[in-house]
Structure formats: C-alpha cells, structure tokens
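hey team, just a heads up i'm posting the complex here instead of the shared drive bc the drive is being weird again. everything in one block, sequence lines first with there labels, then the predicted structure for the whole assembly after. its two chains so it's a bit long, scroll down
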Amino acid sequence: AQKITQTQPGMFVQEKEAVTLDCTYDTSDPSYGLFWYKQPSSGEMIFLIYQGSYDQQNATEGRYSLNFQKARKSANLVISASQLGDSAMYFCAMRTRDSNYQLIWGAGTKLIIKP
Amino acid sequence: DTAVSQTPKYLVTQMGNDKSIKCEQNLGHDTMYWYKQDSKKFLKIMFSYNNKELIINETVPNRFSPKSPDKAHLNLHINSLELGDSAVYFCARGGNIQYFGAGTRLSVL
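-- predicted structure starts here --
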C-alpha cells in the first residue's frame, strides 16, 4: 500500500532554531517523487521542495532542505533559522507511477514558531 | 510564472443551491486537478483532467461535476449543495510539480 505518514500533529519551536518535520513513506515503486507543501493560516498551498527517488543529493531550496534517507523511507523537511512566518501547516506528499501520478498526502504537521 | 487563478476565494450559500468555482492556469499544462480539504485539513483528490478528458474520478457524488471548456480552465460545478460540502476546495495544475490556486472556502448554511 502506498502511504505517507507524518507522525507529528503539532510542533512548537523557538524562533531562529532549526526545525525538522518528519515524513515517512511507503511504496514498492522504485520511481517516485516526494514533495513538501506549506499552508499558512491564509489558506493557500505553497510548494516548497521536491526530491526524486533517483536524485543523488538531498534537495535544498533556500532555508529548506529535504533529508532524504531512502533505506529508511524517510523524507524529513529541515527548516534552518526558523522565522515567525514559518508558522503553518506542512504537508508531505508522494507521487508514483502506481498512483497514476496523483499525489498521496500525509495528514500534515502544524508548526508554531514562538518569538 | 506558476499562476493558477481560482475564484471566488469565499463562497457562502444555502443548502440546495447550485454553485460554481472557476479555475484557470496560464501555463498550458495538460493536467488540472480539484481537491477537497476537510475541517481536519486532510486533502482528498476529487478529479483530474488531462487533455479535457476525465482520468480520475474518486468516490465523489455526482452532484459535483468538473467542466473544462479548454486546456486552461477546469471549473467545478456543484448541484444541490449539502451541509457536508462545506470545505476548502483547491484547483491545481499538473506537471512535475503541482501548483495550487488560492483555494475556495465554501460554507453551506
């Protein structure tokens, strides 16, 4: 079965600290893509970062990096030097051939940055 | 430019009414999607359209119908609205990365 698991329903982090949001995935398809999206309180869904299953290096986008551990089937999002504006829901998602390339979503993690 | 334009942002209506949500993307990509996000923030795909053909239709009531007049548009029509239809609906365009519209918060009273 294809599944995304986000085990942290909520997190509080002090401003300027680094944050790691957990995501584990399950698929038997050797070709897949992993995504992170941010949903602030204003409601929009914002794409953050993408990792392909065959990518040799971990993806990075500014303060965001994806800690991709293929053997463990984990794709944790790391946010460095957190800011108040990082407070939001964060969703991990996966796309595979078996899913007909539609995204399979995790339940999300609500991140609150404390000043 | 990854613009996906979705209107309206808020929609408040009475039970039994019919309403539409519009979605337009300016990238010419073939695939567009509609998602429903419930009160627990869980995202569920409703439809996807590829080259104006429906290729995914999850267990969605037939009161919901996507309409794609051209490759740039995928509108969502909802007939006989029910209380349980209250949710946030997102349009997205396909490609390697899915980009989302701003969402429509539908409230059925």
